[in-house]
Structure formats: structure tokens, C-alpha cells
Design goal:
4 domains, six-stranded antiparallel β-sheet, 29 strands
């Protein structure tokens, strides 16, 4: 009968026949076949139902029941696995949409054309998208995560859309959402869950620690928060080299008339910052004064910082206030860059 439709562009429709003997169920095909629906099988001129009457695996056709002795088993191949190892171009009928593996001799570049325009090229080192608005879409709008994984030698990273909370996340490892380093939510807010940051306060009064010029390290013993776990024993330790914003408020009490000056200092591994020098008695209310200040410190990884209070010209009867509500003495900081 005449063939209706476009001519076959690749391959051909072929057939094969066998003769039943009443016991054989498996027959060897001349071609590798992907699935049962790629064949039309008739036994004794009766069309057989795929999967139910027969199955296929690679080049083996297996009938559910052995064809009767003398029955003709006719197999028509509608589709088969084709080796295109030597093909240079895969294209449509009007040749404006195609995949080329060799546009010029030994080019080793795969080119993708759609509707007459080259939209992408692929080499052994780069995928390049082309066109007026090149776009790479990851995902199909379904209820699923979509991500890109950077497979490193010692460490992997990922960037992706977490379907659980619809946030864009950049993080450590290949699993999305397990160790997020930066999170972008739908409101435009950006959070950094592991960015070093801390706020600590004193737990109780530290009595008679300065007043005669004694440098007293402020005993910050209660952590309100310590992201990344960088604070311990009244000391902040920089986890990485960078610029750190550090601030402190220290309330002193028991200040006497002979205490004519005082200051607080941020003492780091490589330098000391004096942030406030004043006459505490002249400014004190009922013998108490609140020292405060902040700095932007340049710290190397493993550098430390403590806060030191020094009051001069009297005797060591000045206390550092702590505990209770509201919080009176506290130390805080974060990595800025």
C-alpha cells in the first residue's frame, strides 16, 4: 500500500519471520529493540498485543505462549536502536534545526541550531549560550528542588532553589539546604546563617577590679548568641582573616572623687584600640558611669580580642556591673568583609 506522510528521514522499516515448532518461545531478532511497542508481531496472521503476548529485551523476542508448530511469526520493526557513531549532523526536514558535531574539519565543537539560528555551542571546556536573550532554565515549575552543583576537588558547593521554602540558597556540599551559607527569600531579604556574629554579657558584678590604674579584662560569661561558636572565656577569636565590627558597653560603679580618668580598650592580637577616655567621676551619676565604643578591626584568622576597663588615680574599688535586667555590660561583633 502507498506510504502516507513524510518520507523516512533516517533508517527504514524492516521485517523478519520465524516458524513455530510448538515449544520454542524465544526468538533472536536481527536488530536491538528498545521496547515491545517498537514491533508489530503477528502469529498465524493474528496481531499480538505488546507486553501481554510478547516481550522484548535487546535482540530477544519472547512469546508468552509457544507458537504452534508451523505457525509463521512475522515481526515488523517500527523502531530500533540505531548506531549514529559516524553521523556528523542530526537535522529536521528543512535543515534549519540541527545538531552538528563537525561544522569544519576536526573542530571538536558541538553546535545547536534552532529555526536557523545557532543557539549554543559545546566544547570540552565550555557551554556557551547565544542569541539576543540567552537563557538557561533549570527545572520545569514542578514541586522539586532545582540546583547547580560545583564539583570541586576537596569541596563541593551548590546554588539552587529549595522547594521546601522557595528560597534561593548558596551552600556547602552537593545537597541543597543542608549547609546554607547565604539565603535569599521572596521578600528580598538576604541572610547568612553561618556568618560569624556574637553578643555576650557579664553574668554578675566583678567587684574592686580597677581604680588605681589596673587593667581589668571584662569577664563576659553569658552568651546571648554566638553564631559559628567563636566566643569563649571572655575572648572573641576571629575564625577567618577579615574586617570585624566590634563594640562594647561597660558599666562601672563605685567610682570615687579621686578617679579622675578612665577608658575602655579593645585588645587584639596585633594592636590595642582605645575608644573612650573620660573623667568618670565628673560624669558619674551616684558613682556609676557607662563606658562605650566601637571599632572596625583588621584581624587575621585566630587573632583574639578582649575588652579591658582601666580607671586611674584612686584605688581598686571600682566594680564592673553585670547580671540582672536590663543588661548593663555587653560585648558584640560581626564579620563585615
Amino acid at each position: 500500500m502507498p506510504y502516507i506522510g513524510n518520507d523516512i528521514q533516517f533508517g527504514e522499516l524492516t521485517s523478519q519471520s520465524f516458524t513455530g515448532d510448538g515449544s520454542t518461545t524465544a526468538f533472536t531478532l536481527g536488530y536491538t529493540v528498545a521496547n515491545p511497542t517498537s514491533l508489530i508481531v503477528t502469529i498465524g496472521n493474528v496481531i499480538q498485543e505488546p507486553t501481554t503476548a510478547y516481550t522484548v529485551a535487546s535482540t530477544t523476542l519472547t512469546c508468552t505462549s509457544a507458537p504452534a508448530d508451523g505457525d509463521t511469526i512475522h515481526v515488523r520493526f517500527l523502531g530500533r536502536v540505531v548506531d549514529v557513531a559516524n553521523a556528523a549532523i542530526l537535522q529536521d526536514s528543512d535543515q534549519d534545526t540541527k545538531v552538528q558535531v563537525e561544522e569544519s574539519a576536526d573542530e571538536d565543537t558541538i553546535r545547536f541550531d534552532v529555526a536557523g539560528a545557532e543557539v549554543a555551542t559545546l566544547t570540552n571546556s565550555a557551554l556557551i549560550l547565544k542569541g539576543t536573550t540567552p537563557t538557561l532554565t533549570i527545572g520545569d515549575a514542578g514541586a522539586e528542588d532545582a540546583k547547580i552543583v560545583f564539583d570541586g576537588n576537596a569541596q563541593d558547593y551548590h546554588i539552587g532553589l529549595d522547594d521546601t521554602d522557595d528560597d534561593l540558597k548558596i551552600g556547602l556540599g552537593s545537597a541543597l539546604g543542608t549547609t546554607p551559607h547565604m539565603v535569599f527569600d521572596e521578600t528580598g531579604a538576604i541572610t547568612k546563617p553561618l556568618q560569624p556574629a556574637f553578643l555576650v554579657c557579664t553574668s554578675s558584678d566583678d567587684a574592686n577590679v580597677t581604680g588605681a590604674g589596673t587593667a581589668a579584662t571584662v569577664p563576659f560569661g553569658t552568651e546571648i548568641f554566638d553564631t559559628n561558636g567563636d566566643f569563649a572565656s571572655s575572648t572573641f577569636t576571629a575564625p577567618v582573616t577579615g574586617k570585624y565590627f566590634l563594640g562594647a558597653v561597660v558599666r562601672a560603679s563605685g567610682i570615687a572623687s579621686d578617679n579622675t580618668s578612665g577608658n575602655i580598650q579593645f585588645v587584639t592580637s596585633n594592636r590595642t584600640y582605645k575608644v573612650l577616655e573620660s573623667n568618670p567621676y565628673a560624669m558619674a551619676a551616684s558613682g556609676a558611669f557607662q563606658f562605650h565604643g566601637s571599632i572596625l578591626a583588621d584581624m587575621d584568622a585566630a587573632d583574639t580580642c578582649t575588652v579591658v576597663l582601666t580607671v586611674f588615680s584612686g584605688s581598686d574599688v571600682v566594680d564592673i556591673r553585670g547580671g540582672g535586667t536590663p543588661i548593663e555590660s555587653y560585648f558584640y561583633g560581626e564579620l563585615v568583609s
